[in-house]
Amino acid sequence: MTNQELDALRARLAARQGVCWIRLEDAALELWSLHSVPEEKIVARVRAIIERERSAPDPDLETS
To answer: Angle at the Cα of 39 (from 48 to 42), degrees rounded to 5?
Structure first.
């Protein structure tokens, strides 16, 4: 993938931010209201997901 293609992909993903927030809100509300998952467990799960992503290797830095 070229840098130009990567930049275009990043721009398309950035444009989806609003949709991502709606999906997160929908999932959190369903977990809490329909499945009775405690707020603390939902927040902890989201934090764990973020931490897992933060500690993942950066594919831009990996060599083949």
So the answer is: 30
